[in-house]
Amino acid sequence: MNSSTASINLSARDLEAFLALAQAQHFTRAAERCHLSQSAFSQKIARIERTAGVALFERSTRHVTLTPEGVVFAEEVRRIQQDLQHAVAHLRDLANRRVGKVSVAALPSVAAVWMPHVIARYRAANPMVRVQLFDTLAQGSLDLLRAGTVDLAITAGGDLAEFHLTQLKNERFYLVCPQDHAMAKRRSVTLAQLGNEEIVHLARSSSVRQCLEAADAGALGRAGGLESEHLATVAALVAQGLGVSIVPELTLFHFERAGLAAVPVRHAGLARPIYLARRKGKALSVAAQAMAHEIEAHARMAGGRPLR
Asked: Is the model's pTM score more than 0.70?
C-alpha cells in the first residue's frame, strides 16, 4: 500500500505494541507484555506496517529487529510519548494553578481600591500564576475583553448585552466640595440643589458622567464648568475652590486625600452598577475562575452583593 494514500489510524495501544516488539525483539514476549495472544499481536503489528506502508521489522526464526525505517519510527514514537507526557503534566499544573496566567481589566477606581487586595490574596493562594491588570475606563475594558486580551473586565455602563455579567456593586454618588462650602455639613443633597453650582466633571466618555446624564441631564450645574479625564485632577480643582463635583463611592479616596467633604446625593435612579464581565460562550481557565471568585468575594466583603 502506498504510504501517501494509507489511512493513518494508529491508537496509543498500537504504538505501545510497536515499542514493545522493538524492545523485546520477540513476538511471544512482546505479546505477553501487551496482554495479547500471539496471533492478535502479530495481526496488530502487520496492520501497523500496512498503515506505515513499509516494513518496520526484520523477522527471523530467532529474532525480530527494526528495519532502518523502523528505527526512525521508533524514535518518533518515543518523542510523541514524551511530548504527550509533558502535555498531560502541564495540563495538571494548569488545573492545579501551579502555572498559568490571568488578565483583568478594571475601572481606575476599582483598580486602585479593590484590586490590590484581590491580587494580594490571589497571589498568596496561587503564587505561580501570573496576573496582569489593565487600568482603563469602561469602554476600554470592554474593548480588551472583546478582543480576548483579558479574561475578565470590571466595568460600568456601555453596551453590555454581548457579555456574561455578575453585578458586584451598585454605587451611590456623593457631592465632593471644600469643607467650608455651604453644603459641606449637610446630611445629603439633591441634584436639583446643585443646579446653580459650577460642577467639575469627568470626561463625557467616563461611566461616571454617563450615569449622571442618564439620571438628570438638566441638573448638572452651570454650563462651562471644568472637565478632566482624571479623578486626581478633579480633586485638585475642587480643592482649589474652582467648583464641586459629583462622584461615585469607590472614587472617594481621591477626595479624602485632598481634604474635601463628601455628602451623599439623593436622587432616584442615580447609581453606578459595577459588573464583572466575561465573554459569553467562552469558558474561563481554572486560573481565571479562581480570580473571578476572589473578585466576587471581595465585593461581598466590601459591601456589594454579587447577583447572577
From this structure: no
